[in-house]
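Pasting as-is:
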Amino acid sequence: MLIHGPHHDSRLSLCVDAADAFLLTREMADAIIDQQIAVIAERYDVICDEAGVPAVDRDLMRGRQFLNPYSLQDYREA
């Protein structure tokens, strides 16, 4: 998805760079992202339990589909 400039990367730092296009400050974008990361981390296991996701599958998804290292790359530096 084209988020900011010519970049198609799926990184949160790119979302922060594009904050002004969504009428957000960088601080507001950081707060939204930080809240989403906290909710995912806090509720991941509970949601997987509710959905009946086996432990093996949830471990495979953790850090791949959800909050993979590439998506977090350069986020704090942004």
